Hints:
Strand content: 25-35%
Number of strands: 43
CATH topology of the largest domain: Methanol Dehydrogenase, Chain A
CATH superfamily of the largest domain: Quinoprotein alcohol dehydrogenase-like superfamily
Strand order of the largest sheet: 1-37-38-39-40
Shape: globular
Largest sheet: 5 strands, mixed
Number of helices: 9
Helix content: under 10%
CATH architecture of the largest domain: 8 Propeller
Distance between the termini: 36 Å
CATH class of the largest domain: Mainly Beta
Radius of gyration: 24 Å
Structural class: mainly beta
Amino acid sequence: MKIGIVVSVLFLFSACSENQDWKIYGGNKEGNRFSTLSQINVSNVKDLEVAWTYDTGENKDSLNSFGDIQCQPIVVNGIMYGTSPAMKLFALDASTGKQLWKFNPFEKISTKQRSHALRGVAYWQDGDDKRILYGVGPKLLAINADNGELIESFGKHGEIDLHEGLGDKVSLGHDVGELSVKLTTPGIIFKDLIIIGITVSEAGDAAPGYIRAFNVKTGKLAWVFHTIPLPGEYGYETWPKDAYKKIGGANCWAGLVLDEKRGLVFAGTGSPSSDFYGGDREGQNLFANCILALNASTGKRVWHYQTVHHDLWDRDLPCQPNLVTVNYQGKSIDALAQATKDGLIFLLNRETGEPLFPINEVSVPISPALPGEHPWPTQPIPTKPKPFSLQELNESTITNRTHEAREYVMQRYLTSTRGSKYMPPSLDGSLYLGLGGGAEWGGNATDTDGILYVNSNNMLWFIQMRNALASSSSLYSRGESLYQTSCFTCHGGLYRDPKYSSKMQDIPSLADIGSRMSRSQIESILSTGKGRMPSFQHFSKEDLKEVVNFLIKDPKLSTANPVVQNKQQRKMNEFPYAPPFLSNGIRQFRDHENYPALIPTWGTLNAINLNTGEPVWQVPLGAYPELVKQGVSNTGTENHGGPLATSGGLIFIAATFDEKLRAFDKATGKILWEKKLPAGGFATPISYMINGKQYIAIAAGGTRYKLKPGGSYVSFALPSSN
């Protein structure tokens, strides 16, 4: 029955010539989030209305158990494929929103991970063999695109284990099989290969973030690129001896792009573990924080460019690169543009990796540094394109929203360490720009004229390190030890610091978690994950119990852990890595009413001319409804989700605190249309055409910034009379 419905729908769409799909995450293999459609344009976008809404069918009471929907769906032959908050895969008639089939992975596969970010799916076809590939926890699944069934011939009954190719006890000295590994951003298809990066832990138990290719038909591993080099490999000397046995991370979690003609795949990698302390990884640390060009057939390195040396600030490359063609000094150059968390753009020759505009190695502070730390003395700063987010922190950039807000923030500002965004983290605590801001995982759009469109955040952050060896007693409890190594970096200590925390923090304090959740609820989240939080499936039942004992502050139930006394004697190849210094948890610095501590604009949409390296325009993105009521409307808000550019002269983007989808004039940045979504649109919109009608669609999943949850997809079109 299901197959018959799909076949008839396919026949209908194939018979119509006025169709255009959105087949790939990012719009095309170059990742440009650009549609050539122009039926919806600057003159008629004001008439845009809801064409259909699809409810993913999650139980409304359970939506808070999941994160926001970050999925950018794809449309192939008029059928939309996307995912629900609970990681179910669905197929819809993309002209009506009618469901054709739905696949629930947890009825078919075994995994403890029940919730994590899913930003999209991949599609592959060979004749009548049509497959959707997507990740659920540590599994990569192959699903029949016609009927939503697992393809038994792929891997083991339709799935492969994403730990494959990451090493084993013989090569690494420890087993990676239970470590947190997820495919949050879909892979890229090259011929019969799916090439993937992964999301891993950012603590001492991080798996290595190798980039790998698997055969789409069989699921067999085709090649592996070691982002933390093994002995004898290029870059091995940029780490301490045998660092690969202990250090994880250096992973590409934000997605890859492909130059199919040249057979090159490009990736941006993240920081090594653990975040904020690198004393046991002295050196430049290739290939962490790198733009990589790999041979798509073999995985061999063609070139690399490192954007942060020896990262101490978690400055992962947060989005796909954009493959563009620019007019540089009178020549047409195939280039790559990579935007960063701290608002920089690296514009490189796609074939060679050479910068088009000069990039200076600038001296940066290396002291005071934590004991054992070895900060890199220089960092690469592009001369062009110009930065698109705030780069300098001083009194003139501190909020002046109200007299009370400025006084509150200035008091904290004057008593905190501040200065360069490259200051080494310290025990005293420091204020930073560029930890979360600049570009984000929503990605960027580029049009055929070489203009790049990127949304950004201006946010101030506070980081304070602590001595993980210091304790009021000679021994830590087992639960406290596990919490420090696995949870502390994100959540911080079990206290509430009113100076640097607020109700709008994405990562909450767990200070009073025992009064808000039961033991069973805490254990469930630790086991299955939730939103950005991974599953701690590698914890034994005993360890899980000990962590919960610590969280609910019942030391009588926790056992002593004498191993912690000997952290300083741990060998370089011992795993999991237990750094001597840990972050107290990164915190946004906000004023007394929970608004950002900086002068507005807090969120922006930017147009940048890559041909010249100069900005075209920058406008506020989003508004806080309560401030609008006070007559303050141009602040912008924190935003997550990316832009869509179209040949109709428009930029579509949601992403903001006020839960709206907006259309901007591509030439001027002026808002031409906006619509409140059923929930926050923290995803990237797409555009497609069916039977001569253009649609704009986006996921409305909510929950980010502690907004209401949602579970729907909304598609917009012009009225039929248009």
